[in-house]
Specification:
The chain is mainly beta and 320 residues long. It has one helix spanning 11-17; strands at 31-35, 43-45, 53-56, 66-70, 77-81, 98-105, 108-117, 122-130, 138-139, 145-146, 153-160, 166-172, 183-188, 200-203, 213-221, 224-231, 242-246, 254-255, 272-279, 283-291, 301-306, 310-312, 315-317. Strand 17 (242-246) and strand 18 form a beta hairpin.
């Protein structure tokens, strides 16, 4: 999920350091690249459940939060910057915005995003609002969540439960300090960003996650909560799209023994940063990124899509 470059590690070394869950050899439905330029960690919404799709990405040469639209969930056009002002709390010397997520809340839109806080000297989660999906979004004066003692926080996403209750999810960026990387969830008010109650841990990194769980995206379908996430180092071909399931929004969640997407599946390379949405309880669509150069994130990450992802009895599946 990260925007900065990392020192590359030889795949032979990584293969020893990062054990994997069992790969799946089943076919899957994947299409891409549908945006064949740097458009990492894509968010996805369909305003009012019809019309044009909107997607938003991590910072690139196109702005803090570039956005794209599609009338058919197939052909996409990249536009300008949906968040030209990321807020005064974001460090001007380290201003890259990571992994935005946008949700329709009432008559407007709420964007969650990750920025580096000058005062915290760490990553925090910010919130911005707009009356229209293309923005410009207006940032709140202060970040929503910071947890510098645990390594900072990144990769926020929103979720609306059956019955209307709203939540925000995020990753504790513990791997920046050699710590664990739990995925957290906390209730928010009807505005989509006023924190309520306390946070609950849903999952954390385990034996097969390569030291990382991140990029949470939660969706409800037919009695199950599916928590999609990525594991392993984002800058390697071990990055993936995995998932865990539960019968309760706050868990406990059980990780699938098979990642949904691994490098090589359907022509992808380092797939990750997925956003999965339930569209009017009729179908489930998803977007994610894949390395453009086929080996790491240094060449940018293109957007790919998954139309009509199959979710059935706690199992997610696709075909190429």
């Amino acid at each position: 999920m990260h925007f900065q470059a990392l020192t590359l590690v030889a795949l032979a070394t990584v293969a020893v350091a990062a054990p994997q869950r069992l790969p799946s050899h089943s076919k899957r439905t994947v299409s891409g690249p549908v945006i064949n330029q740097d458009f990492a960690d894509p968010a996805l919404i369909l305003p009012n459940g019809s019309g044009s799709w909107y997607s938003y990405s991590t910072s690139s040469s196109h702005g803090n939060v570039p956005y794209a639209t599609s009338a058919n969930f197939g052909t996409w056009t990249v536009h300008g910057d949906a968040l030209p002002d990321s807020g005064s709390w974001v460090d001007s010397g380290n201003s890259g915005i990571w992994a935005p997520d946008v949700r329709q809340v009432g008559g407007g839109y709420v964007m969650y995003y990750t920025g580096f806080s000058a005062s915290e000297i760490n990553h925090c989660i910010g919130v911005a609002t707009s009356s229209v999906p293309q923005g410009p979004f207006t940032p709140q004066a202060n970040p929503l969540i910071c947890d510098s003692g645990s390594g900072g926080v990144i990769d926020a996403s929103g979720f609306q439960d059956v019955g209307g209750a709203r939540y925000v999810l995020w990753k504790v960026d513990g791997n920046s300090q050699g710590k664990s990387t739990p995925i957290m969830i906390q209730p928010v008010g009807s505005d989509g960003y006023t924190l309520q109650g306390s946070a609950t841990q849903l999952i954390t990194n385990g034996q097969y996650d390569g030291g990382v769980t991140e990029a949470p995206s939660l969706v409800y379908w037919n009695g199950f909560y599916y928590l999609f996430f990525s594991s392993n180092n984002y800058n390697t071909l071990y990055y993936d799209v995995s998932y865990a399931t539960s019968k309760s929004v706050t868990g406990p969640f059980t990780k699938s023994t098979k990642p949904l997407l691994l490098s090589g599946d359907c022509g992808t390379a380092g797939p990750g940063g997925a956003t999965v949405i339930n569209v009017n309880n009729n179908y489930v669509n998803a977007v994610f990124h894949s390395d453009i150069n086929g080996k790491d994130a240094s060449g940018g990450r293109a957007m790919w899509e998954i139309p009509s992802l199959s979710l059935s009895n706690g199992v997610a599946s696709m075909s190429c």
